[in-house]
Design a protein that fits this description.
This protein has helices at residues 22-25, 63-85, 101-112, 238-243, 285-288, 291-302, 312-319, 337-349, 369-372, 378-392, and strands at 15-19, 34-39, 86-96, 117-123, 141-147, 158-159, 170-171, 177-182, 202-204, 211-212, 220-222, 248-255, 258-268, 277-278, 282-283, 327-330, 354-359, 397-401. By secondary structure, the chain is of the alpha/beta class. The strands form four sheets. The chain has a nine-stranded mixed beta sheet with strand order 15-4-5-3-2-16-17-1-18, sandwiched between helices. Strands 7-8-13-12 form a four-stranded antiparallel beta sheet, with no helix packed on it. Strand 7 (170-171) and strand 8 (177-182) form a beta hairpin.
Length: 404
């Protein structure tokens, strides 16, 4: 039965929780029905968390080899099932630490294909570093990202949140902020041989700044060249120059050989569709949150009932790379961070994202905070958090129990 539900005439709930083994639940989801997956599977650390985080196969003489082999055997069919429910334009993001990062990378190469690799992101979730144990004070984990089919993938690898206004130091008379970008393509892979249609003369007047594809009074013909004088190509075609002449400016600049005239694009801070910037592959705690802030988020909703949740900021950054109507899946839902992040993102931007969370009814550890809080299974932790999210943030929650 739903723990909290939307009115019958309302839109579908933002959050749906399936209680059951993900290997049982995933095949019941429609193939290709999910746009993006984020999940935080067991790390195989050997610790006793609120869920079992150990996978060991006693048939191996080497206990480490056996542990890795058993973990990989657990993950493989689940990743294969995730691949089946991903839309061709979809992508999967998986959190992991050094215990299984190498094995997961190889496994995802096999399941999703090396050609569909998007990124291995370093996530700084513990800025102070872990002080217990031997060796270095580890302060990072990873997120491995793969497309279902890279040519069709909607993940942009960019976000509005990473835009820095300081990168746009100039102001137009109407107050709009911008920066200059060379109109010539600075990548030497693109040249008159590889892109002949983009090597042509434009006409510009550095006194007025005017640029056009045809000659006009006071103009001079300009062809693109690299800094060393070799022929280059423009980034824009003739039709695009004709469509956006006010976004171009002819200027005098000082180069290696003295002053020369060149053409620049005015790159506006605010533009139609929103300004985005490529995300780097190191995500800092001050940008996305930390394990400590994640514990505080969960504690504010249902108490300290999960040892190492992920911060909602991590998931919201991933969500920012795809459209705001995405169907999101988390097959190892844990404390419910993904569903919480989806609700927060919808509330912030008016999006219609929906999240499908899956968690098993595996018993919480005897004596754990979760058990003492009256949460006998790990799915009860997820349900408690998503119920609180539905009440405090909105969007509703549907809960389904696996028939198994």
């Amino acid at each position: 039965m739903p723990a909290a539900s939307m009115p019958p005439t309302a839109a579908p709930a933002w959050n749906t929780l399936h209680v059951g083994d993900n290997l049982d639940v995933l095949p019941r989801l429609a193939p290709g029905s999910v746009d993006i997956v984020y999940t935080d599977p067991p790390y195989n650390t050997g610790n006793d968390f609120a869920y079992a985080d150990r996978f060991r196969d006693g048939s191996h003489a080497d206990p480490y080899a056996g542990r890795h082999a058993a973990w990989t055997a657990m993950m493989r069919p689940r990743l294969e099932a995730v691949r089946e429910v991903l839309a061709p334009h979809g992508a999967v993001f998986v959190s992991i630490d050094d215990n299984e990062a190498a094995h997961l990378r190889l496994l995802m190469d096999e399941v999703f294909g090396e050609a569909n690799f998007l990124a291995q992101i370093v996530v700084n979730l513990n800025p102070k570093g872990r002080q217990l144990g031997r060796g270095f004070a580890t302060s990072h984990e990873y997120v491995l990202a793969y497309a279902r089919h890279l040519p069709a993938c909607v993940v942009e690898g960019s976000s509005t949140e990473s835009v820095d206004e300081a990168d746009f130091p100039l102001s137009a008379p109407d107050g709009r902020r911008f920066r200059y970008l060379p109109l010539r393509n600075t990548n030497k892979k693109f040249n008159p041989v590889t892109a002949p249609t983009l090597h042509f003369a434009l006409h510009g007047d550095p006194a007025t700044g005017r640029v056009a594809t045809t000659e006009f009074p006071g103009s001079q013909a300009l062809t693109p060249v690299f800094g060393d004088g070799r022929p280059a190509v423009w980034r824009w075609s003739r039709p695009r120059v004709d469509e956006r002449p006010d976004d171009l400016e002819c200027r005098v600049i000082r180069g290696r050989t003295g002053e020369r005239v060149d053409i620049f694009q005015r790159d506006w801070l605010l533009r139609e569709g929103g300004r985005r910037k490529k995300l780097r592959t190191i995500w800092l705690a001050e940008e996305i949150g930390s394990t400590d802030s994640a514990v505080a988020e969960l504690k504010a909703l249902v108490g300290h009932v999960f040892e190492s949740p992920k911060p909602t900021g991590l998931v919201r950054r991933i969500l920012s790379t795809v459209p705001n109507d995405a169907v999101v899946l988390d097959p190892f839902a844990g404390s419910g961070t993904t569903g919480h992040a989806v609700a927060l993102a919808n509330a912030a931007d008016g999006g219609t994202r929906r999240c499908i969370s899956i968690n098993s009814a595996e018993p919480t550890r005897e004596g754990s905070n979760a058990r003492l809080a009256g949460l006998p299974t790990v799915a009860d932790i997820t349900r408690a958090r998503l119920t609180a999210v539905a009440e405090q943030v909105g969007g509703g929650l549907d809960v389904h129990a696996s028939p198994g």
